[in-house]
Amino acid sequence: MKISVIVPTYCPQDYLWECLDSLCAQTLAPEIFEIVVVLNGCDQPYRGRIVEYISRHPEHEFRLVHTIQGGVCHARNLGIDTAVGEQICFVDDDDCLSKEYLERMLALAAPDSIVVSDVVMFDEKGNIFSHFLGEAFRRCTSSYSPSLFHGRSFLSSVCCKLIPRQVLAQDKFDERYILGEDALYMFLISKRIRSIVLASSDAVYKVRQRAQSASRSHYSYFYRFRLAMSLIGTYIGIYKKDIRHYDFLLFLSRLYATFRKIFYSNYR
Q1: 20 CB contacts (<8 Å, ≥6 apart)?
Q2: How many CB atoms are located within 10 Å of the residue 62 CB?
Q3: Which of 28, 117, 154, 267 registers the highest number of CB atoms within 10 A of its CB?
Q4: Cβ contacts of residue 49 below 8 Å, gap of 6+?
């Protein structure tokens, strides 16, 4: 199996079917990739609906995992443990992929590189908006393989990319965090990333704009301060354990970005 697409979902609504539809519509042959759906929290009626959806797509390889424990980090860790693909692709359950996405990304995959895609944002009316990762993608188009520091925006999210299994190694998401967890995980595994490769422009990760997602910005200043201090301590601990293999400028940029989030709640 070349690719495992990991889709964590919690009390999924109709947007999950749009996400899975975009995966089943991929131009990449279905026998080359699997779809790992990790349902966390409530079991029914959600499990039954997912099983019914899977039954209607027998040509695709699905794996359905359920856990009563909540949290996207826990769900992703279970997904990693379940996946058998050589490359890992994380997709949020309310997002979608362009139909060429997996095929274009796989064409550029290498054991020690991550492949990143363009990113756009869309709303329920179908309107398309710019996304900060899409802006970073366009800034880097003149450089085929930006350095980890210059491509640091791509390392703020685990989505919109292909990550080789050997880059993940045995590292897991830190389940203590519900904000800033993606950037922390990408920094943790960055010591095994030798290059960042940009996919072709028709590989597009589509982020759904939802009102519920904005609730992440409503945490109090005191909570964000404690969170930032904890994250900074964790970053320092990771860096000190293997100083030689981590990019120093990337490390400093993560500390700065984390501290900045005390005052600006939109995590990037």
Answers
A1: 7, 35, 37, 53, 57
A2: 19
A3: 117
A4: 12
Rounded-to-integer distance, Cα 255 and Cα 268, Å: 12
The token pair at 187 is 């920094």
**DSSP-derived secondary structure for 136-161:** HHHHTTT-SS--TTTTGGGGG-SBSE
| Token reading at 88 | 């890992």
Q: How do residues 156-180 score in pLDDT, each as one tens digit? A: 999 999 999 999 999 999 999 988 9
Determine the straight-line distance between the first and last CA of the chain, rounded to whole angstroms.
31
E strand spans, 32-152: 33-40, 61-67, 87-90, 96-97, 113-116, 118-122, 128-130
Query: What is the pTM for the complete model shown?
Result: 0.93
Separation between Cα atoms, residue 212 and residue 151, nearest integer Å: 29
* Tens of pLDDT, residues 183-224: 999 999 999 999 999 999 999 999 998 665 444 456 788 888
Distance of CA 185 to CAs 1, 50, 168, Å? 24, 28, 9
